[in-house]
Fold these 2 entries.
Entry 1:
Amino acid sequence: MKCDLCNKPAVVHELQITDGVKQEIHLCQEHAAEQGFADIHAMSMQHFPTKVGSAAVQSPACPSCGTTSAQIRQTSQMGCADCYEAFAGLVKSLIEQSQHGGTHHVGRRPAGSDGDIAKRHETQRLLRELEAAVAAEQYERAGEIRDELARGSRSEPMSEASGPSEDPET
Amino acid sequence: MRTDRPTPQARSDAPDSDVVLSSRVRLARNLASEPFVHRCDESRCRSIIGMLRSALLQGDLDENLAWVDLEKATGHDRQLLVERHLISRQLAEAAMPRGVAIADDETMSVMVNEEDHVRMQAIAPGLQPERCLRRLVLLDSELETRLPWAVHDRWGYLAACPTNVGTGIRFSAMVHLPALRITGELTKVRQAAKDLNLAVRGYYGEGSESTGNFFQISNQRTLGVSEEELLDQFQRVLIPGVVRYERAAREVLLERERLTVEDRIHRDLAILQAARLLKADEAMKRLSNVRLGVCIGMLPGIKLDAVNALFLHIQPAHLRDRMGGTLSPADAKSVRAELVRQLLGGDDGTGS
């Protein structure tokens, strides 16, 4: 049997049932890995649990929130905004299944958004962390955050619309 | 909240009010800096509430919103809000810290820590999705200057569930389709809706059953189509199509089975005007036929607003509220019957 996404032979076969609708999934090794299935060819027998149910095959996890691809497949819910990047292949297939041909967002975006929204939000998050660290008198941590903010503002200057000042010293 | 007053969500003078009870538009938004709600522990949920509360209750917002802490609210109060369509069942029943900001006139509410950090909705009587959209966009524009929404270059506004990414918008109309039910054409409407990527749900939204022949019809697609395109389709094509279909079915009924329909409507009105005990589902069913009778001019003595109000006031929490907060299920049936008799001009129960 061939992979659903290319012509290579499928090595992962899964039956999913969503809202009572059955869907068969057949993927090659490459696409299975991209979609968050464990790489079964890379596993040797010694990696298999010796006792049934004593351990589960580890699926990839989001570096920000720890949500695994298996959890996403099970619940159809992402853990955080970063999961959309961490599981790009899986996200694409979940969205394509539900959006009937929609492949890109059209419509409203926050005013002043120009592609560096994630960066702007990261700065805002760091500023909040800095505030909390100073309040808790964790000066070492505050120093680290300042360095991180300084690195961010040097590598790519923020636009005026980015809200809080980029200069952590002000 | 004054539960004795009708919600402004249904009015007889609103556009297409013979078929469309109300229109609702909601936007799903999430904070970029926080995990989605189902991955948040209690303290994170509280900190999200803190951020949202301060953004929503600042005096310079165009909307005048009041905060309701749903964690502290009683089950009864939460049920009242569900019945008034101001919060979802999911939010009412959730275990985590959560809340809702509600506009004075109850035509807007902002749910916090539902499936997404923020679910804001605007409601208007009849078919008026544009009015709802303009109001929501204004609120969203104000909020986005204070809160870092999670947005992706390709996927647009991000949501806990990937099926909601893009605009994060859902247009819905609560429609009353008794004639299509009687003529057996409802299945065709359901199929057509499915083909057009529309969801058909019950009276209380997701997971709820249809009651009183009310259905919520809403878009499912949120990606690759703008808010304005969706509005245009919804307001000018999709819902008017359903309205025309229901009106045509009403005409066909009158033409072909006038006597049967007259009998059914008058019989149901008579029962409602005389009954001493009424279960909610029986009342909804008979009221649905009475509403049909009013809309086709068969019951000139009954006002559409009175019937619309009854659909709300006969719900369990509203009846309980009327009786001061406690009411046994057995007593609810008699209180419901009394209220229905009162509003439909039935006998006063004295036997005179």
Note: The CA atoms of residues 46 and 97 of chain B lie 6 Å apart.
Entry 2:
Amino acid sequence: MQDKSFFDEILGDKIFLFSFLLLAILGLFVQFSAGAQTIVSIESQGIKVLVALVAYSLISRVRINQIKVISPWLYLGAILLLLLVMVVGVTINGATRWIDLFFFRFQPSELAKLALPMMLAWYIDYRQFKLSIIDFSLIFLAIFLPASLIYQQPDFGTSMLVILSGLAILFFVGIGWRFIFGLLLVLLIASPSIWQILEPYQRSRLLTFINPSSDPLGAGYNIIQSQIAIGSGGLFGKGWLNGSQVQLEFLPEQSTDFIFAVIGEEFGLVGLLILLSLYFLMIGRCFVISINANGTYSRILSASITMFLFFAVFINIGMVIGILPVVGVPLPFISQGGTSMLTIMLALGIITSIDRDRKVNLE
Amino acid sequence: MLQENRSDKFKNVKLEKLIFQRRLFIALGFVVIAFLFVLFKLYQLTITEYGTLLSSSQDNQLRISAVLAPRGLIKDRNGIILARNDPYWSLTYTPELAENQEYVFNWLLENNFLDQIKLGDLKALILRGLSFSTFPVAVLSEEQTAIFAVNRYKLAGLDVSENLYRHYPYGPITAHVIGYVGAIAPEDNTRLDLTNYLMDTRVGRNGLEYYQEKLLHGDLGRSTFIVNSRGRVIRDFNIQSDEELATGSIIDNIPPVDGESIELTLDIHLQELAYSLLEGLRGAVVAIKPKTGEILVLASSPTFDPNPFSLGISQSEFDLLLYDDSRPLYSRATSGTYPPGSTIKPFLALAALELNLIDQETTHFCSGSYSLPGNDHQYRDWLETGHGNVSLSRSIAQSCDVFYYNLATDLGIENISSFLRQFGFGSNLEFGIGVTQSGILPSVEWKRDYFSNPSDQTWFPGETVITGIGQGYFSATPLQIAVAGSILANRGTYVPPKLINGVMDVMGNYRTIASGEGYTLDINNEHFETVFNAMDMVTHSNIGSAYSIFSDDEHNVIGKTGTAQVISIGQDEEYIEEDIDENLRDHGLFFGFAPMEDPEILVLAIIENSGSGSRFAAPIVKEVIDSYFEDLSSDEEEVLALNYAR
């Protein structure tokens, strides 16, 4: 591997870059249609895409060992910032998630998303893969501390993502099947008490997931309207800027959480398949890097990032098409907003760095 | 393995990597399954459920609003409007346009546009509806409209809209003929196509409004709009993609079709006159043109004002009408059944002439009473002292009962009923304006069918006797007697009565409404002459029962008086009016037509409990006939004047 291409050198992984750019451009078009339909309305999103691209490129050039070294400190920092949010956080729509840094609003839960897998990978590597029951307890604590801090902001979606990617790590370090099924059993038994601690809006979301038509104008409205949008788009869609569900605002949260349905209505099943292919390409690429990754830290972290990307995509799409309950998570790269896109691009930067590390070792 | 990391110092590196890779493949399998699940669901939505979801998306955005067509007008024979649609102002509220809902509601309360209860109803309605919907608040009086107009600038969200309500300029005078309109009732489901109506459309509830609902209502128009999720109308959104054209859901406007106007045969001036003559009386007046069957007057008294029904009458107001002892809602002219009394005598005379039982010379001796052979029951004449030897002409002129007791016995009940049936007695003259009754034309067969108890089914000869003077079971509606009189006046030709001259649609196309088939009776014309001459004596001979009223007659009116008994007087009792309850006193009847040689108009009047027919009924008939000819000559003068001006 003597000749290093421009992409490898400057921008990182070709597949990530290709998929990301296509998704981000598609995202801009869809946001144009779902929003005010002016260039100004998508300008800031365009800037965010560029920022994410630069961040990706920078991180991908950092040696993985350097990343590894800062992992515990990053995690500690994330926890402290999550605590700080509780004190000085900015409240928007009843949720306290942000710290105002004057030039932009920083969301510590996004940092935690990234820092948790890094921390766990570092710890497992540090313990040289020999994990006692105490280690497992510590790992659980490391997962549920940020998860519970995020949950009380409240941000159910992000805390779910954090827990899922943490549990995925336990799966990858070879935790016994008995343990996995035991955990599922505990969850099943605990479900009534979990039900008790859920907020009323979360309960109604779960209920309408089971039967959306129970409250078609209330809690079930979103999911019914998004299914109508996707279904009425048919095979080829109603055309860009031509989806009646979108243009007449029957579709809720159409620039953010429910943007998948906009693509369905205006670009049809074909558009959705292209979108899914791009995600599958990215996730597949992550798998290949994970399989080949060197060292415990790299393996664990890359696998975790793989699953993190998958969960982010699947939970959003599953919610919009009605196979999962409504959880407020954005569709990666497509939904309006820069924070989650930045987080995922940083994660992809790390996984690219892991891949580079392998190639360097190969030489 | 070449790529083994130098930092992997522990021994189970291979095992660790093996476990990791196995788990990674399991995770990959999970991811693939999840993607397949998503694909399956997307296939379901976009392919399997495409049709239903596409129509759901169209249902979302298409709002159909119905446009009510103005109800058809009703006019009299001269084009004078009897039922029209007048505007009224109604206050509406649109929440999305309101700036301060609390202020608006308080203002409505303070100015008595609404009370607390109605405001509560409105709030409940708003909670259920879309924010861009418009809700009705109240019907405004002229004064309230003015108050609102002054304060309008601070009442964003409120608006005034113009609606139509049914107005009857002649009110009570046309109430029984035209009826009235009211809210749709549950039973309308079977007779009306309710998809052609709005929830609050007023439909005909009685009379012509009810029976000609289809003509008058017209067709609902439909405007289809595209709306957004808040119900605001988006006009410039282009929905007509190929797909939507293919599924037939293009935006369209179906204009409403106005109800058709109905021109009646009624002459509102004569109708007005009839009502003024009926003032304070209970009874009916019917005027008809024998040659054409056109009904000029159809009046029932007492009457009511149909106008309060249009905007919704209160239950207490309605109960007042419903439980009034004089029954103002009851259309006596078409539904009231009365014994025809002596008005039947010319018909019986005609029957006897036709069957050659009598001729002009035949006389019967009237001693003041009549008995059947072998029976001592006395059938009295109204004149206790008797009329002596009575011929046909005198029997009609003076209305001798004994003459007709004899005639009835000679004719027999079967001859009487089959002859009278040809004049419309005993059959229903339904002609599309409301409930009509058929009355009773008694016969042996009728009695057998009518009574269930076998002992009541036998026909007695005595019943034939009283049928001869239009009493006993015999009953007919005022309209029936008038129609029978018309056949007589026409010398045996029946022209079905009609109330509707024609119908005109919005485009001005006029069409006549066919009435039923007529017929001509096979009766010797000379016999008509005989009867007419006898009836001429009623009005013009100084022995005639109505001579005093028609002494100054200019139009050659001939007719017949009648007195219908409400109760039968016992064998030894005497009928003393003052001693009898008012509503048990005799009904007075009179029918007359003119001119005798070629009758143009026939008028019948029945006045309940007024005693002899010559007292109230005959003067009314005279007035109406006189007025008819006066109007006619003044109309002719107008035509002459018009022609002269031209």
Note: Residues 13-48 of chain B form one domain.
